Automatic annotation (TrEMBL):
This is Universal stress protein UspA family protein. Belongs to the universal stress protein A family. Signal peptide: none annotated. Gene3D superfamilies: HUPs. InterPro entries: Rossmann-like_a/b/a_fold, Universal_stress_UspA, UspA.
């Protein structure tokens, strides 16, 4: 587009809009069902159902939260792994009940952002990660508190869903 002086306008967007589709979704949820996790999950299942996409649901056993005695107890760790697996399976069942046809529950252990970015994403290969983010400070690591790290370091696109919609 030429301006009044006949020169080419450098702000002209010279491309055609193309449809963008995702093919595999991954949603990260906290085992304690934080508000942001539930909202991210709701967004993920809505999107997966609407576009008939496979959905993986991941939660992380945060081993840094365990005291030294518990972390050294194989029985305790096995029990915690079972609890985390049961929680992610409940999310998976909710997704199926909502109408998502292909759902994969996943668990990991360690620091949530690091494990999701360095282990879960390379293994499951989503092209979109959906994660919640709390706006308040927390005393321990929640997946939502790791949203910034994941957005900056994930090998796929990331959508961050806030715990609330209020604008200030």
């Amino acid at each position: 587009m030429a301006n009044k002086m006949g020169k080419q306008d450098n702000n002209t967007l010279d491309f055609e809009v193309q449809t963008m589709n995702f093919h595999r979704l991954l949603v990260a949820v906290d085992e304690d069902d934080s508000t942001s996790s539930i909202r991210a999950f709701n967004y993920a299942v809505t999107t997966a159902k609407a576009f008939h996409l496979p959905l993986a649901i991941v939660t992380i056993l945060e081993t840094a939260d365990l005291n030294i005695y518990d972390s050294l107890s194989p029985e305790f760790l096995a029990d915690r792994r079972q609890e985390v697996l049961a929680k992610v399976n409940q999310y998976a069942q909710k997704a199926v009940d909502f109408g998502v046809t292909e759902v994969t529950p996943l668990i990991g252990e360690g620091k949530p952002g690091n494990i999701i970015v360095k282990e879960i994403i390379p293994d499951w290969r989503p092209d979109l990660l959906i994660v919640g983010s709390e706006t308040k400070e927390k005393s321990r690591l929640f997946i939502g508190s790791q949203a910034s790290y994941m957005a900056q370091n994930a090998a796929c696109s990331v959508i961050v869903v806030r715990a609330n919609d209020q604008f200030y």
